[in-house]
Write a structure and sequence with these properties.
This protein is α+β, with helices and mostly antiparallel strands. It is built from 2 helices and 4 strands. It has 2 domains: 1-65, no CATH class; 81-109, no CATH class.
């Protein structure tokens, strides 16, 4: 992704379920972070954290991945940005192996 979108800070590949053979590959991407469902804090997926998750699965509980709640961070302030214009100018869609600007698709955004 980085060669195409060098300014991306984060990339979300969907839910991660550790005991699902179809989803385990997501945890193999590095760096990989998981959002703690209790504290809403991002934690790096390590061997130790995998063990915490495995233990919680066996005990049929929800693991607390982070010790303390995360402070709120406002790094997504869009009040001065027209989202529609921003998307039209900056988003690209991969279509049949070709990266195309969003404008090509004439979408009403």
């Amino acid at each position: 992704m980085h060669p195409y979108f060098p300014n991306f800070k984060y990339y979300y590949i969907g839910y991660y379920i550790q005991n699902s053979p179809k989803m385990i590959y997501k945890g193999q991407y590095e760096p990989c972070q998981l959002l703690c469902p209790s504290t809403y804090r991002w934690e790096v997926l390590t061997k130790e954290l995998r063990e915490v998750i495995d233990k919680a699965i066996k005990e049929k509980g929800s693991p607390r991945l982070a010790e303390q709640a995360a402070p709120l961070k406002d790094d997504m302030n869009f009040k001065d940005i027209n989202i529609s214009d921003f998307m039209k100018k900056n988003m690209k869609i991969l279509d049949k192996g070709v990266l195309l600007p969003l404008q090509v698709f004439n979408l009403n955004i």
